[in-house]
Hints:
Mean pLDDT: 95
Radius of gyration: 16 Å
Helix content: 25-40%
Low-confidence stretches: none
Strand order of the largest sheet: 1-8-7-6-5-4-3-2
Shape: globular
Oligomer: single chain
Largest sheet: 8 strands, parallel
Number of strands: 8
CATH architecture: Alpha-Beta Barrel
Structural class: alpha/beta
CATH superfamily: Aldolase class I
CATH topology: TIM Barrel
Distance between the termini: 12 Å
Order of helices and strands: EHEHEHEHEEHEHEHH
Number of helices: 8
Amino acid sequence: MKKIQISPSILSADFSQLGNEIKKLEEGGADMIHVDVMDGHYVPNLTIGPPVIKSLRSHTSLKFDVHLMISPVHKYIQSYADAGADIITIHPEATDNLQNSIKKIKKLKKKLGISLNPETKTDIIKKFLDQIDLVLIMSVNPGFGGQKFMPEVLDKVKELKDLRDKQKLNFDIEIDGGINFENSKLAIKAGANILVSGTTIFKSNNGDIKKNIDLLKSI
């Protein structure tokens, strides 16, 4: 079984104190920092861009797990790589040619993530699994924080874990959307090994980040 890792989403952080918030996450035992990038086009919300990511890079040595919810995504990959992303996750529907976008991310020597929305079938990525470092399963419809977890996506997590085992591959399975102390256990049991969480980490237990991260990791 892969080690369980926590990737806190800074979407739930205090944006006026992002540098300090990231330091708190690192001190609290976060394994990486999840950065949600939204364009107001692919998803109905706007968040941060490359300049903010670049300015945050000096505040932590943790990996930046950058989820690009933007379309068309291909022409922006270079900008996010240059800004300091370590993992670049894209949506298959957001590029005209998924193979070309995969090649671009790999050429930039970044880890490649592919994200599947709740309604997106795994068939769209099966032929690429040997090139993928991470599959991000969305357990809410992307665009806003604080939504309710959709348990039906756990079937996709199980399917991907089975495919990984059968094909002897090594990609991570990440899950994002409404993750809390209860459903995190279900996600881990289904095969997820990276949990993205925002509200639960920043708001639960009077904002005790270390306690919240530890609780999410416990099965």
